[in-house]
């Protein structure tokens, strides 16, 4: 502790450097992927993979996470409503909290094994969109529930009391007062979960995807291609199929999609955090 | 009055209904975790029971060789290598962001960092494959750049955001009172950070490291694209320039080929069980340490 | 005169918190700073050891002369100022370390260790009357002490670095009456060694322990003088009104 100035400056330098390194890494990844921008032509985006395009992966990705979100949004919201509104100190709520923490840490490939066993095998759905929806919905649960819980906790108690004092039932209070106030949190949860699974590969690798040339899925019982899966397949099994710049373009689309969703989620969250901070 | 009573009764019926549905959703979420454990155990148990799993350094399902050493050593080597880079980088960056940067810059800098953590693993694997693998190949003069080093580098980039974000949160929540007390005694800013802030934040930072370790072990796609996936480790565990075969990669490569119900199939679920156990252990340890952190932070 | 402020002004952003304060603090005397809540008492205290700089957007103009030298001069080592002008906070804030390490902290960061460290730590603990209570448990966490003991520990911590001035921000407001009496006794003893400035909202306390009193209202120093005179014969109407409880 003797020399008070010098170690301070050394630590400052080192910490500044590492921050710069982290930022530079992000910058480099952006730069690298942008080399694919040249191949981002409408023809590439809209033609089938049989013609060197990525239409099926784009549509497949949209189908997949739209369905998964449609399942997880109501279930996750209701679970959060139960934990915060109906039974904040109950045993089930505490169990839920612990279960969600552990669920969030489960590796995605284990989700794949789970989904394969339950949905593909036991429920007999086979490798298809529906299995993917259900598997992904399970993966998204912790993020969805936590986002909704966060915003429900922000709604001040006084608002609920006012509603109940006017004679509303608990559910009416939730439906007409709390949930509308919590809507941004639900939105964040949805968008965050979508961001999380838009790029997911391992969980759907053997539950929803099949490298098939059958075209777009016509029913939920068809397998599907996603951007992430297609990129994986191209790198691992078909390195020469597309031009390098086109593969970069594919990665760029996926990257841009994830960044857009994540940024949207953060923006919504920042908005309502500020709004509620002023309220309380 | 009667009307009110009637309405109340009717409403309480729908209240029970909604509450029940909500409770079912909560219970269902818990059930998911239970089912994951149940299935992994059920499908993995036959592999354990039949004794095909050994600890030898050879994972070749085609020849009925299920030596776990290859997979375990690979996972650990890659994760440790990743943390060796991401822990110092993450913690020192967190110190910089929280202690040095003015608040407005702080919010600005946090954006690319959080986005870095949101990038899908397949994109990381792709970048690793295109950039890191050839670089290693030419820098070290080896033919295949797919090595533990490549996987560690990719995982390092993927885990830095975890450590950075969590450590930042912990550092920022060290109470102002401690900092004020230290400064009022004439300590410099860095002395305060070194002797008061960091020691107080240590449990929380440790928890973030544990979680990053869990993520590194559980990462699948990024590693399978750059790690090499050989049948056995040709060198000692600390040799980062050899191709490696982490557990997660083995599952992905294996599920494409294994017949349902075969020994290989069950072995893969057994690996899944090991991964699950790892993630639970990491979570439990992180929770325990976090609780200790809350005490120090007087939350 | 130990400390003199000349035209001291403090802004927090747009808010003009202290206006043209000319305060005199005498050595080996207790100066009480009284006034209603929110009138700048704490800000005044914190501008005497430059802790006010920690607030985002804080601006200071004017001079604070410690033994004739302005502590806000560009060349001044702020950490040395803070050693010479120690502070005790309203809510006891022991560091999350052991009892001994709390007292030793200010010395360790200056490179003092070994014999000297132990000697000065023990001396500080004796002065505040804690030594007998804690000598057998010096390595227990400071949080194990009662609130009153924690506050005394914070005082010991501040005097271990041998300051010349002690700033005390409502040191007894978190304590019960019996402990308060003990701390007031301690302050009277400390008066023999240091210049002490005590912010208090408790008028009886000011009367009990201080030699001089400064009355602050909405950021302005309304009146300053010997405690007796201020309380018995205040010159300003505002002072009179405050002392008779017309507003708080």
Can you describe what's shown?
The complex is a heterotrimer of chains A (280), B (299) and C (248). Chain A is mostly helical and 280 residues long. Chain A has a single domain, classed as MetI-like fold. Chain A has helices at residues 6-34, 42-46, 55-86, 91-105, 108-122, 129-154, 157-165, 170-198, 202-205, 227-236, 244-279. In chain A, helix 6 (129-154) crosses helix 8 and helix 10 (227-236) runs antiparallel to helix 11. The model of chain A has no long low-confidence stretch (mean pLDDT 85). Chain B has 299 residues and is mostly helical. Chain B folds into two domains: 1-49; 55-296, MetI-like fold, CATH 1.10.3720.10. Helices cover 77% and strands 2% of the residues of chain B. Chain B is built from ten helices and three strands, in the order H-E-E-E-H-H-H-H-H-H-H-H-H. Chain B has helices at 2-49, 68-100, 103-118, 121-140, 148-172, 176-184, 189-218, 221-226, 247-255, 263-296, and strands at 53-54, 59-60, 65-67. A three-stranded mixed beta sheet of chain B has the order 1-3-2. Chain C is an alpha/beta fold and 248 residues long. Chain C has one domain (3-243): Rossmann fold (3-Layer(aba) Sandwich). Chain C is built from ten helices and eleven strands. Chain C has helices spanning 41-48, 78-84, 99-108, 114-127, 131-134, 147-160, 177-190, 203-209, 227-232, 237-243; strands at residues 3-12, 15-21, 24-25, 30-34, 58-66, 69-70, 85-88, 165-169, 195-199, 212-217, 220-226. Chain C is globular, with a radius of gyration of 18 Å. The mean pLDDT of chain C is 90. Chains in contact: A-B, A-C, B-C.
Task: Report the major sheet of chain B.
Answer: 3 strands, mixed
User: What percent of residues of chain B adopt helix (DSSP H or I)?
Assistant: over 70%
CATH architecture of chain A: Orthogonal Bundle
Biggest sheet features of chain A: none
Largest interface summary: A-B, 85 and 87 residues
The first-to-last residue Cα distance of chain B is: 48 Å
Number of strands of chain A: 0
Specify the CATH homologous superfamily of chain A.
MetI-like
Count, helices of chain B? 10
Shape of chain B: globular
